[in-house]
Structures are given as structure tokens and as C-alpha cells.
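TL;DR need C-alpha cells for one chain.
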Amino acid sequence: MKPESGDAKAVKLWTAIILILLVLVNSFLPYTNFNEFSAPVTFILATAATIVLLIVRPVFAISILYLLMLALTAFIAGIGTEAGGLLTETGVLGEPDGAFSRLLLFYIVFVAAAFLGFDRTFDEKKSRGLVYPAAIASRKNLYSGIALVCLIVVAGVGAGALEGFAFLQGVNRYALRNDSSSLGGLLFSTFLNNRMFMAIFLGILIAAGKGWQRWLAVVLAAVGALLSVLHGEQFMATLQYCLSVLTPVVAINVIEQKPVLRYLGFGALVALLVGGVSVYYAYQAQGFDVDEMVLVRFLLQGQAWYVVDGDSGFLSAPALGGIHAFARFLGSLINWSSPSFDDYTHLSGLRDLMVAYGLPSVMDAYVTDNVTFTMGQMAVPVFWFGMLGGAIFVFFTGYLLGILCGWQIRFIIRGGVVGLWFVTKVSYYAAFGMQQGEYWNIFGIRMLFFVTLTVVWCFLFESGAERGKVGWRVRA
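>> reply
TL;DR here they are.
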């Protein structure tokens, strides 16, 4: 790999300095007479920082791009909220108080921590060579992976055949799932909980497969996206699926020193388009005023943060949160099933926050369908600990996620099919926990179980990959 020129290093250094200065200025903007510009400037800075990260560290950036793009939706919501938007689930009317400029600081902490964790497990700058992914290096692995993907597709089709597709029936996806039969529910859960492995494996085939393998992967990837939409999955879920397909493509091309910006640009555009179209037609099928519904939903992307930010101090948590709410979260970690509204004595995390701030009329409907608020990643830690404690918690979880993302990239290159499935499963649970602020998914007993299985499997069967028997070969 050619060393960077002095000019390239200087450009990166000045770009970093300018962004840091702009963030500092933006942090003080809410306390001036120009506070109404705080949210728009915050969104611009967040977008610029994301683009710079994609250019400078594309493998790391694509690993967390799903969370970064969701963060951008929260900053877009901030513009509408601080312009006086109504948050319909809590009844709060927004005003320009600088909440989203503070949210940007939390995301900076999170990304910095994730980068440290990622860099500890995968050295993006030194990993260069021709890639031979272990998951498709042998016929046994290749056909096993394709068979698993086909089973996942069959599960998705079977669930729709038995219970109907939420999109085609024009009903709320949660209501349909809650009324599903045992077999239909099992098939749907199989599809839902394994489609990220499907996306990652197909991405490997698209990036490193040959001839028919690539075309088959493209077709199956499109089928997976279509099934997600038909089952009523909307913006965030379809976005995550599409970006998961893109992750191996970017990682393998970077290691082989091929240009990746075109894949990043095209892939991100496709992911946003599929996510946006799924939202539009899902709302239209349910008989909603699409424009109004999209506007309301966009504002709710930043709702959890906005209401908690307004009640928190630098060292103090909201009165309805605090150490007692955190204790309830700790108590939920020993439960195998995820927190739900079925038992109000064991509410924790995001649901705890909902009960504290949600309107009673909204909560009644949400409890019935077991629906939660969205985007609680930064709000829930602040709900427990206040600003400073929340930032420390966010740093810790960001570091853990970075380590997981680094291992996922390693297994995209060097892991067998089963090892890749385990690592992808753990990463999926962690990413979902981050997105929603459902930290039970990261620290609960179910995650501990899958982490243990992953470590045992890798130690017994995949250690040869880490000794370099498969993976990439350094160029001469």
C-alpha cells in the first residue's frame, strides 16, 4: 500500500480541525440570539462528519453506517422539533433549546469509542491483499451458506402464506404478528432473526463470488428486501438489511485496494430508496394521509432524546428515571425473553421511559400491540444517569459495539458459515439494542448465551482461520 502524501495528510488534519471548531461553535449557538439555527447547523455538521468518515475510514464507517444514518434522521427531526413541532406520543411542543446540538456531542462520544474498539480488533489500514472469504472458499461452505439463505427465504414466504403479508393486507405489522399462529409466528421469527446473516452472506457472494454466484446473490438479496417490505418492515429495518448487504462489498474491496466510494454512494442511495418506498406504500395501504404520517414519524425520531434532555441536568437524571430505573433494568437482565408490557412490574429501559413520558391514550394502544417508542440509544442512558453518566455509558457501549463490528469484518473474511452466523447474530442483537436503547439486548442473559456459544465454536472450529489458513493473502 502506498504511503499517504504530505498533502493528503494535511487535508485530513485541516478537515478534522475545522469540524472540531464548528462543533464547538455549534455547542454554544443555543445560548446566543441565533439559537433557532442550532438544529439546522447540527444536521449539516453531522452529515459532513458522516461523509468525511466514509471517505477516511470506509470499512469502519460501513460497519456502523446503519446507526449513523438513523442518527441523521434524528437530527432532521430536530429541525422540525425545535421549529415548534408537536411530538404526538408525548404531547410535547418543541422549541429551540439546543437539545440536538447536545445530542451531536453524544454521537461524537459514541463514534469515537466505537472507532477505538473497532481498531483494536481490525486494523483497517494494514489489512491489504487478495481476499478469499472462508465462507465461500470451499464447496461445502458455499453450498451450506446458500442452503441456509434459501431456508430463510422459505421461512419468510411460508410465514406470509400462512398468516398473510401485512403490506398486502393493509394492516399494522405489529397487530398481525401478535395474532399469528404458532407455526406462522415461528416461521416469521426465523426469517426476521436470520435475515442479517442472509444479507451478510449474500454481500460476500456479490463481492467475491464468481459468475452465477454473484447473480444468484443479487436475486436472493432483492427477494430478501421484498419479503421484508411485504411483512411490513419499514424504514429502519429495510435500511439495516440493505446496508448489511453492502458491508462485505465495501470491506472486501477496501482490502483489495479497489475504489469503494461508488459502492457506498450507490448502496446508501438504494438503501434509503427501499426504506423510503416501504414506508410510503405501507402507510398508503393502511389508509393514512402519507404526507402527514411521514412528517409525524420523522419528528418522533428525535422525541425520546428531546423529552429526556429537557428534564436532565449535567449530573442529575430525570425525576422519573435515575438509579431506581437503572435498578429495574438490571433486574430484567436475568430474564430470557426481552422486556415487554406483559408484566408492568418488570418494565425496564425504553419502556420505562415511555411510561414516564407517554400520553395515556397513546400508551393504551402501544401496550396492546407491545409497540415501543423509537431511537432511545442516547435517551435511555441519560434517563438513568444524567448527562455525564449517560455519556460514560454511551462511551462504554460504543466501545463494545466497535469490538463486535471489528470481529464481524474479520469473520466476513476468515470465518466459516457457522461462525459467521454466530457473530452476525450477536452483532444484530447489539445493533438493535443500540438503535432502540433496549440495552437488555446487549447485556441480557440471551446475549451472554450467544456470546458463549460463539466463543466456544470459534475456539473449537474456527481458530485455524485466525492463524491465517484462510482469509486474505498479502500482495507481493
